[in-house]
Amino acid sequence: MYYKLEALAKSGVEITLHCFEHRRKRQEILEKVCKKVYYYPRNSVVKSVCAVLPFIVTSRANSELIARLQEDKYPILFEGIHTTFPLLTTDLSDRITLVRMHNIEHDYYNGLAKSERNLFKKIFFKLEAKKLKYYEKHLSKSDYILAISPAETAYYQALFGEKVVFIPPFHENTQVAALSQKGDFTFYHGDLSISDNYQAVLFLMDIFKDMAYPLVIGGSFFPKKLQDKIEAIPQVSWLDISDNAVLKEAFSKAHINVLLSFQKTGIKLKLINALYQSRFVLGNHAILDATGLENLATLADTKTEIRHEIQKIIQTDYTADHIQAKEKSLAPFQVKGNAAKIIELL
User: Fold this and answer.
1) Which domains does the chain have, with CATH numbers?
2) Three-class SS of residue 19?
3) What is the overall mean pLDDT for the chain?
4) CA gap 97, 75 in Å, rounded
5) Which of 121, 205, 302, 345 has the fewest CB atoms within 10 Å around its CB?
6) 8 Å CB contact between 198 and 118
7) Is the pLDDT score of 208 beyond 70?
8) In this predicted model, what pLDDT tens digit does every residue of 100-135 receive, in sequence order?
9) Closest CA to 264 of 285, 247, 278
């Protein structure tokens, strides 16, 4: 989201940013790309969970925010279905409204429910998925829906027609990194507080326990139980990537990036970053399907397939031909051009 703000600002758009505080503290860097920045608290968990509307929406219902939105006639970009409560309660017919969709949210929450082992969380995710499916119809109140991948574009166009526009994700990259022919390890990274990513790590560890090639697992959160499991396998190690510079260095040293998910969700930003900043990518169907980037990665789903493909890629040199192929296929993902698409809608 930050890179979207940055790209729009560089293109001459004045931005008033309304955002909700949650874990992350206020960010001074936002002042550099936005004319004004307002912060709001999230509503209580009990109040939001018990509401008829989805938790991610009701927890961001705020009367002060709505009052500020009514002070002018500027276009409004709602970042995610999470932020669209004003569409339900406020007459915004006199201005342009856009909703950026990050996923087909009810599918995403059903996927979270499937991979979650905690019974309370599993029930919560299933309930949230049902609420989101019902709530989805309210997207018709917006002028445009910005879908993040070809698959999401097709889904929302079937529901809302021509108001749906494909805008790929924004990111920090400007060119494909020129790297040496060989890296040193296989790399997996993700937020391990998310059940899907946690299950992916366990899946990979089961593969690499029988391999000599090293696997590095990157994250900013490592439960002690997971650390113990990792340290029990000599060729597997973990890396704290809380500092983005550490993540960048890991990309530059990795020979293979393994990206796994057990649920289909838009286009993963880590897929784009790995393609720009590292060498080879191996992913499963949930990561690669309908992204437009399938030709840049190796597809494998089962443990046997993944083990076989890794052994092949280890023997493969990363060359100028790989870089050129990336540059060609990643052209639609250039942030400047996608900022121009949004400005055209405004």
Assistant:
1) 2-172+334-345 (3.40.50.2000), 185-329 (3.40.50.2000)
2) strand
3) 93
4) 6
5) 302
6) no
7) yes
8) 999 899 999 998 898 888 899 999 999 999 999 999
9) 285
